[in-house]
Amino acid sequence: MVLTLTALVELFGFFTLSILSYRFYQAHRERKSLISRLLFYFVSLLTLYFFFDGLLILFFAENSFVLKISIVTGIFFQSLACAVIAYLFLYITNLKISPLFGFLFVLILGLGITALAFNSQFHPSWELVGSIRIINWNLPPIIGFLQFITFFITFIPLSCIFLLYSQISKISFIRIRSFGMVLVVLLGLNAALINFFLKDILKLNPLSGDIAFGLFSLFLFTLLLYFSFQSENFEKRISSPFQI
Fold first, then answer.
1. Residue 181: Cβ within 10 Å count
2. pLDDT of residue 242
3. Most buried by CB count within 10 Å: which residue of 5, 70, 92, 133?
4. Count of helix runs (H) and strand runs (E) in the chain
5. How many CB atoms lie within 10 A of CB 219?
6. How many angstroms separate the CA atoms of 215 and 244, rounded?
7. DSSP state, 125?
8. Nearest to 126, CA basis, from 136, 141, 112
9. What rounded mean pLDDT belongs to the chain?
């Protein structure tokens, strides 16, 4: 076992997303809305991705084949999560397009990227950057670019959904919480942009991808910690007029 910063970042991401997933589970249990259920599915799928990816990196950092499998399975989980958001966006906006169409479009795109990654020749490995061990995925640029596109076409609509919540609510707590989620989504998209695309195209420091994901997880954890102290007093006073 080789302890890498990449594994620590992935497991910290699993920890923070687990908390967020539980929050959405609570919202769905209380309100029984399709929106809260879909958000729960979305975050849970990303949580599974971080969990399995983190464990595989932690215990098999010296096994290039297992690391490649972690990428292939990770792309599948990410694509399935993004497909849920495509369904959610079309469901909310009611654009006279079946939400199932959005789900299938993103899912098929993701399955194509998964198959491309599985059949591509690349060899992930751990390496030292200064005195820090990280995983260098050595991912073909086309795969990273397609991964980012999948996130882009779904995370931008997702940020718009949370922005809508922050605009239509008359309660400051709901507005702030929703806007905080907008920032979380955009930070996640930024991490995907750096890790999957810019890092190789611009020849950035190999640490940049791990740092970007680490900052995303840290911001999410801070936000969840803050609102955990605020929500109890808020729920005693009033409930949201726009239930998710």
1. 22
2. 39
3. 70
4. 8, 2
5. 16
6. 27
7. E
8. 136
9. 87
| Helix, strand or coil, per DSSP, at residue 78 | helix
Average pLDDT over residues 228-243: 49
d(CA 92, CA 17): 23
Q: Which residues pair with 129 in a beta bridge?
A: 132
3-state secondary structure of 243: coil
Place of tokens 């302890």: 3
Distance CA(224)–CA(236), nearest Å, equals 19
Say if residue 151 is exposed, middle or buried (CB neighbours under 10 Å; 0-12, 13-18, 19+): buried
Q: What percent of the chain has pLDDT above 90? A: 60
The three-point CA angle 27-189-169 to 5° equals 40
Average pLDDT rounded to a whole number, residues 68-72: 93
What does the pLDDT look like over 88-127, one tens digit per residue?
Answer: 999 988 778 899 999 999 999 999 999 999 999 989 999 9
| Distance separating alpha carbons of residues 129 and 208, to the nearest angstrom | 11
- Interatomic CA distance for residues 28 and 23, integer angstroms: 9
Separation between Cα atoms, residue 37 and residue 34, nearest integer Å: 5
With tokens 């198959």, the residue in question is: 115
